[in-house]
Write a structure and sequence with these properties.
The complex is a heterodimer.
Chain A lengths: L1 H19 L4 H22 L23 H32 L18
Chain B lengths: L13 H18 L2 H5 L4 E8 L4 E7 L1 H24 L6 H20 L3 H19 L6 H32 L4 H6 L10 H15 L8 H4 L5 H9 L3 H15 L3 H24 L3 H20 L4 H32 L15 H15 L5 H15 L4 H28 L14 H19 L1 H17 L16 H18 L1 H13 L4 H23 L4 H22 L14 H19 L3 H21 L3 H22 L12 H23 L5 H14 L4 H9 L1 H30 L1
Antiparallel strand pairs in B: 1-2
Classes of the chains: A mainly alpha, B mainly alpha.
């Protein structure tokens, strides 16, 4: 099972990397979303997959008899939210770049490092 | 030109006096240790420094280190006294005194350190402080260049030296130098002996300016003359010699040691003597004779016999005394007449009688005339050379030639300007003030005193030093002026004849040498083009790596990630990959395919709306994975966030232009696939290895009894790891505030 999802994650990462390399900020954002999804899934899969046993303690018991690994779930929960924060900021930054510089091609944004400085 | 001495010979007030007193106090302190050391004892001082690594602030006073300490602090005192007048009224004298004193203390630390790491710290401190001193006249381009050259050459050697020290410590299991020496010949049989030796010698040869690393030393003459006197007599350049001497008991006796030191030393000695005779500038000539002395000292350290060791110890002291004295004399001549060119000097003997006497005494010692210590040193050198079992002719020949040349140089530097010709018109020299002739006179007289009463030196310093060098008592040979009619005596006579011949013909010889050396490649000439090349390379690679393009930064980053992971997997051998698909059900396969389909659609589409939809598909697919595999809380969060993302992208995208059609880039595709494969393989390797569930079990059994929560994930987030969650909230708030700030300024900008 983990093998199957390891392959899935590989495809997600490959797609994300290709999009991030594309030198267009919208595609970059798409890649960013994909790669953070892939990262979350990696943490989850690395903690092993357990079907149909949520990490809950039944009434009357002190500990679950059989439960999925709770730790990666907690980590992934945090990661999803942080990833969203990053995404929200990135997309606003892209928007701001567009309104100010009128471009979505990062290689054309040379205000801080003008082309002449590299001659 | 009028005499250049400062009118105010009182010097620089307290700033001038305090360093002199400090150095004198150090000298007195070391002198008080002489009786203990003469009784063949040692003094140790140990302060714990880094106990976990076994590194201590360990200091050791034995014959070798005491000899060096006395030379350093004694000559330091006289040089500081001299500088106070030489640089009287210099606006930056305080800085000069600070550098010189700091250099002296570093040098003392270097020779007293009994720990490899401590030794290295002081080693580098001498490099740094000497850089400051050589570049003291920092307004001149030449001075800066030469200081930088000295720093680079000795600094590069210092790196090799550090590597050698670390290997040495690893091989011996201790950083204590006495500890390493106490292990006897264990080091010589160690498998790492050769690398250690090469690295250490790379450090000491650059520091002690052995051919071919000799070029920086004459250039270091850009420093004020007192600095040259100090750096070239007792310190800096002797640091390399000191380390070789210190390691002598533990490392000498092998063929590599013998031949490397003998050949480098002999070549340096002869080569430098020829170069010295070629110079017309007095200071440059002295600089090259320093090289000769360093070569000779190295040559003797290559041997093991008691004669060679005694010769080393004696010549070390002889050289320090006469060389410091002569440098200071040249400083007097320079200030008095305004030049250091031999052709423009003459007849100074009557005008500067005291300086002339100091020069004569020092030069006679340098030339090796009896009854000076230099004569004894020279006799011992020959005795030591003959005692070399393997190649007595080669070593004695090198010693004979370099000594004869030394005699000629001594004549050129200390005889000719005083006693030949007349004072050229236009110069009005004066005798130097007492602060400036005191040093040369004292140092030069010591050469005579020790020559007439060699026993003083023998017991106090020579015997203990030889013990440090050989590790055995009773190896030292006797210092005496008259050793009977023997081979060294004949060699001495040959030296005098040859040397006087060289002096008589030195003008013609110089012209000949001038022609000869034109054809020899010199590293100094290549130095500037080497530096330019280095700078050009730095610029080129900065432009290559830091080209200011996001796409190439990302490409480099991903390439590093892929290469790093894949090469590591390859190197460690592919981990056991268990392709276990037995428990895969149709729902798992369909969810995986859904997610992959979403990702591929996002990859290929040129439509913004399709892209958003594709991202939504991926998000839903992942949420489904969370649901199926028992993570309902995560799934809920994922769905909420996914919704928000789609909303945000949709809002923003309405204001952005549509995407251009993407061109297929093969190199990007290959790199992407490589990164994907690397991630997949790593994850498969992770899930194929056993999982440590202790932490999860801890949360499972403590969630309810300790935190009263039945949802373990919730309890982890809000109780066990509450601070993490707080941090997470902070991140989201900061992101929101930043986004708000960006959008606000946009609106303002629009209004304008």
């Amino acid at each position: 099972m983990e093998f199957l999802f390891a392959i899935t994650i590989g495809v997600l990462v490959a797609a994300a990397v290709y999009l991030m390399l594309s030198n267009h900020l919208l595609r970059f954002i798409f890649g960013l979303v994909l790669i953070s999804n892939a990262a979350n899934l990696t943490i989850f899969v690395a903690g092993r997959l357990t079907d149909g046993a949520p990490p809950l303690i039944p009434e009357g018991a002190d500990a679950p008899a059989l439960a999925a690994n709770a730790l990666p779930q907690a980590l992934v929960l945090t990661a999803i939210v942080i990833g969203f924060g990053l995404f929200a900021f990135a997309i606003v930054l892209v928007f701001r770049a567009w309104t100010t510089l009128n471009s979505l091609t990062p290689d054309d944004m040379r205000l801080a490092e003008p082309e002449e400085a590299h001659k | 030109m009028a005499g250049g001495f400062a009118t105010d010979t009182r010097g620089n007030g307290l700033t001038g006096i305090v360093p002199v007193l400090f150095a004198a106090a150090l000298f007195a302190w070391f002198a008080s240790m002489v009786p203990t050391i003469a009784a063949t004892e040692v003094i140790r001082l140990t302060i714990p420094w880094i106990p976990s690594l076994g590194i201590e602030l360990a200091f050791l006073v034995d014959g070798l280190s005491l000899t060096f300490s006395l030379l350093i602090s004694g000559i330091g005192t006289l040089v500081l006294l001299y500088s106070n007048t030489y640089l009287a009224g210099h606006p930056q004298y305080a800085r000069f005194a600070l550098f010189l004193t700091a250099f002296m203390v570093s040098m003392l630390g270097l020779v007293l350190a009994d720990d490899l790491i401590l030794l290295f710290v002081f080693w580098e401190l001498t490099t740094l402080t000497s850089y400051m001193l050589i570049g003291f006249s920092h307004e001149t381009e030449k001075s800066r260049r030469n200081a930088l050259q000295a720093l680079f050459v000795t600094g590069a050697g210092g790196l090799a030296f550090l590597a050698g020290l670390i290997l040495l410590a690893a091989a011996s299991g201790t950083t204590s130098i006495s500890g390493i020496i106490a292990q006897g010949s264990a080091l010589k049989e160690h498998a790492m002996y050769l690398p250690i030796l090469i690295l250490l010698l790379a450090g000491t040869f650059t520091k002690s300016a052995q051919v071919p690393f000799h070029f920086w030393l004459p250039n270091a003459m850009a420093a004020p003359t007192p600095v040259s006197a100090f750096l070239h007599s007792a310190t800096m350049v002797k640091a390399g010699v000191y380390v070789m001497a210190r390691m002598h008991p533990a490392m000498s006796g092998t063929d590599v040691w013998l031949w490397t030191l003998t050949i480098f030393g002999a070549v340096t000695a002869v080569f430098a003597s020829l170069l010295a005779l070629r110079q017309t500038d007095l200071k440059q000539a002295l600089a090259y004779t320093t090289l000769m002395a360093l070569g000779t000292l190295t040559l003797f350290l290559g041997q093991e016999s008691g004669y060679a060791m005694t010769a080393f110890a004696t010549f070390l002291i002889v050289h320090s005394l006469y060389k410091a004295s002569l440098f200071l004399v040249v400083g007097c001549i320079d200030l008095s007449t305004g030049t250091r060119e031999t052709d423009q000097l003459g007849g100074l003997g009557r005008i500067m009688p005291i300086t002339a006497i100091a020069a004569a005494l020092a030069a006679l010692s340098m030339a090796g005339f009896p009854p000076f210590l230099g004569f004894i040193g020279k006799e011992l050198k020959y005795a030591g050379a003959i005692a070399v079992a393997s190649e007595p002719l080669f070593v004695a020949g090198a010693a004979l030639l370099s000594n004869a040349l030394m005699l000629a140089v001594a004549g050129v530097v200390a005889f000719r300007p005083f006693w030949q010709g007349a004072v050229p018109s236009g110069q009005s020299p004066r005798e130097a003030p007492w602060q400036m002739w005191a040093g040369p006179i004292i140092l030069a007289s010591l050469g005579a005193v020790f020559g007439i009463y060699p026993d003083l030196l023998q017991v106090a310093l020579i015997n203990p030093t030889v013990i440090s060098l050989t590790g055995e008592v009773g190896e030292a040979k006797e210092l005496k002026l008259w050793a009977g009619i023997n081979i060294p005596l004949f060699l001495s006579i040959a030296t005098f004849v040859l040397g006087l011949l060289f002096y008589w013909r030195h003008v013609q010889l110089r012209a000949m040498l001038e022609r000869g050396f034109q054809s020899i490649p010199n590293l100094d000439k290549g130095w500037d083009s080497f530096l330019d090349g280095l700078k050009g390379f730095a610029k080129w690679q900065t432009q290559l790596v830091q080209n200011g393009k996001l796409s190439s930064f990302l490409f480099g980053t991903f390439l590093t990630i892929a290469a790093g992971i894949l090469l590591t997997l390859l190197y460690t051998g592919m981990p056991m990959i268990a392709v276990d698909l037995s428990d895969v059900e149709w729902k798992h396969t369909s969810i995986a395919l859904l997610t992959i389909a979403g990702a591929l659609l996002a990859l290929v589409t040129n439509s913004r709306i399709a892209g958003i939809a594709a991202l939504g598909v991926v998000g839903i697919g992942i949420a489904l994975i969370f649901i199926v595999f028992s993570a309902p809380d995560v799934a809920i969060t994922q769905l909420l966030v996914e919704t928000l993302i789609v909303v945000l992208v949709a809002v923003v995208m309405l204001r952005l232009p549509s995407m251009p059609k993407a061109e297929f880039r093969l190199n990007h595709a290959v790199l992407s696939i490589a990164v994907g494969v690397a991630v997949s393989l790593t994850l498969i390797a992770v899930v194929s290895s056993p999982l440590d569930l202790r932490l999860t079990e801890y949360f499972e059994v403590t969630s309810w009894p300790e935190a009263y929560g039945r949802n373990i994930v919730n309890v982890i987030l809000v109780d066990f790891r509450a601070l993490d969650t707080f941090g997470e909230i902070a991140v989201v708030v900061i992101a929101a505030l930043s986004a708000y700030a960006l959008l606000r300024t946009t609106r303002k900008g629009d209004q304008k």
